[in-house]
Amino acid sequence: MKAVVIRQYGNNDVVDYTDVDRPVPGPSEVLVKVHAAGVNPVDWKIRGGLGQRMGLSLPIHLGGEIAGTIEQLGDAVSNFKPGDAVYGIIPTGGFADYAIAKADDIAHKPANLDFMESAAIPLGALTAWQAMFDLAKLQSGQKLLITNSSGGVGSLAVQLAKAKGAHVTAMGSARNEDYIRSLGADQFIDYKSQPFDTMTKDIDVVFDTVGGDTFDKAFLPLKKGGFLVTAVAFPADEADRYGVGAARIFCKANAQQLMSIRELVEAGKLKPTVATVLPLAEINQAFDLSEAGRTRGKIVLDVIGQH
User: Fold this and answer.
1) Residue 105: phi, psi to the nearest 5?
2) Per-residue pLDDT for 306 more than 80?
3) Whole-model pTM over 0.90
4) Fewest C-beta atoms under 10 Å: which of 36, 166, 235, 238?
5) Is 53 exposed, middle or buried (0-12, 13-18, 19+ CB in 10 A)?
């Protein structure tokens, strides 16, 4: 079978689209025939050296977000059957014809989405869910600020927060204003021309996916006792200085949350945006697009369509 593998760290030159043996599931695992795989910044960051800091061992089979069908069950698996359409996140190996997933980490995919759309949901939606609801405890009626509302995470975060009943102030570039407002945002801020740290105040929760100077300023509009959760920075002593809470989100597989997310999708309250679909063999082009950082929604690899 085909898979995307790196044997050393570096740029796209180290990425190998190659033939590997088909994996065999363990007792509590399933073998998934991958139809589509989502591309995320963490994928090219692992390629660039993050894998070493994460404790991964070379060679690394890249890809952590998939949608596909169950091909084979481990002996102890009873919650799926062969042919079931599933989606979720896995530790490694998603950019391949077949991938191994823990049966307790994945869920049946939304019935009203195809595989390409389904692959655009798990990592972004779980990251947003765990950041806003688990860590920041966002409640209905509270005011939320999202620092990048057009990407794979932010676009889903806007919709999840609105489904929760929050008031959403969404940041993005002017060219994406109509798109972000179509997601349900109550207020839009053009991050290039409008100083968000002075335009907003009494914010209950900030969800930051930008980092850097944006992260530093994101404490300013928070009310006392508010909460900042970030997917990219590492809060140190800033929270104490401002009298707020702060945490970094590390997304974890969660089948129950995937089921809740599926219910929102099937109820029409959450819809992914697929920006670009590329064949698996064009993984380097997908990485280039992702690294450019200007994608609206998600880059997805069509794994099954190329055969």
Assistant:
1) -100, -15
2) no
3) yes
4) 238
5) exposed
